[in-house]
Amino acid sequence: MGRRGVTGAVRGGALLVVGDVITDVVARHRGPLAPGTDTAAAIRTLPGGAGANVACWAARRGGVEVRLLGRVGADAAAWHERELAARGVRPLLVVDQEAPTGTVVCLVDEDAAGERTFLTDSGASLRLGPGDWSDALLDGVARLHLSGYLLFTEPSRALVAVALKAARARGVPVSLDPASAGFLVRLGADRFLTLVEGVDVLLPSRDEACLLAGSSDAADAAARLSRHVPLVVAKQGAEGALLARSGEVCARVPAVRAVPRDTTGAGDAFTGAFLAALLAGADPEQAAREGCGAGAQAVQRTGGRPPALD
């Protein structure tokens, strides 16, 4: 077994991401939507999903093998496998013969700094359950990352519990991205924190951190959450990132300047690059700097993925 770094990760092993694989329909428009009539837009269909995006950005950073466990419908399984492989990810996709692949309609307002609104049909992605898990998935794995979307349905919550137990038994550290402030409201902060017990790194957005901690200040929220999770990395978009441990903010990392075209997947890009950097031996602050760099790259692209590898 390789040498452990400051975060507990075993250097030289793979990153296993467990999460959602989604088909994104991205509609870029200017200004408010026109109810009851047409709004001109540029529309593209792209591969997405928070878990899949994280895996692709981790592979883009390089230096680590990246695997992805997800569930897709038979309608788009082959396409998603090709798209993941083209970005350096080893796809471990379960094909659902009943439910279609999840679809998200992303409405991107070009007059509002690329801000986006999501219409989400999770489809097969949230049918991922304990029956799709095998402890053998952790063979050769140095870190497990879980998409927070897994906490929003009963089957996938059960999978999270099984995966966390297996990771603890093997000494594999686990990170988690809460994924959606909207869904967290329904789940509840107390329930969320109970479900993620045993996670060593939490990567919320500013809104997610504030919601979970019951605070309107991101730094205070990150500090409070770090009493529950050993390391909290709060992603703040154009304001960079905050790192907190043991109830205190321990580092502030500035953002990398970029002109945003589409903010879809920026947080996933940060997470992917951050985790890959940790596994390559970076300390958390340096890993967060790499995460900010990846986030800046992401907002200059349409969709949530990096380009395919050469």
Can you walk me through this structure?
- This protein is of the alpha/beta class and 310 residues long.
- It has a single domain (14-21, 50-99, 124-299), classed as UDP-N-acetylmuramoyl-L-alanine:D-glutamate ligase.
- It has nine helices and 13 strands.
- A nine-stranded mixed sheet has the order 5-4-1-8-9-10-11-12-13, sandwiched between helices. Strands 3-2-6-7 form a four-stranded mixed sheet.
- Helix 6 (206-213) crosses helix 7 and helix 8 packs antiparallel against helix 9 (284-299).
- It is globular.
- Residues 291-310 are annotated as: Disordered.
- Belongs to the carbohydrate kinase PfkB family.
- This is Carbohydrate kinase family protein.
- One of its GO terms (molecular function) is kinase activity.
Mean pLDDT: 92
Overall, the morphology is globular
What is the CA-based Rg, rounded?
18 Å
Instruction: Kindly report the CATH topology.
Output: UDP-N-acetylmuramoyl-L-alanine:D-glutamate ligase
Task: Please mark out the parts with pLDDT under 50 across 5 or more consecutive residues, or reply none.
Answer: 1-10
CATH H-level superfamily title: Ribokinase
Q: What is the name of the CATH architecture?
A: 3-Layer(aba) Sandwich
Terminus-to-terminus distance? 32 Å
The domain count comes to 1
How many helices?
Answer: 9
DSSP helix fraction = 25-40%
Name the structural class: alpha/beta
- Quote the beta fraction: 25-35%
The major beta sheet can be summarized as: 9 strands, mixed
Q: Assign the CATH class.
A: Alpha Beta
Annotation, overall tally of beta strands: 13
Q: Please list the strands of the largest sheet in the order they lie side by side.
A: 5-4-1-8-9-10-11-12-13
The succession of helices and strands, N to C, reads EEEHEHEEEEHEHHEHHEEEHH
InterPro entries: Carb_kinase_PfkB-like (IPR052700), Carboh/pur_kinase_PfkB_CS (IPR002173), PfkB_dom (IPR011611), Ribokinase-like (IPR029056)
EC number: 2.7.1.-
GO molecular function, one term: kinase activity
Keywords: Kinase, Transferase
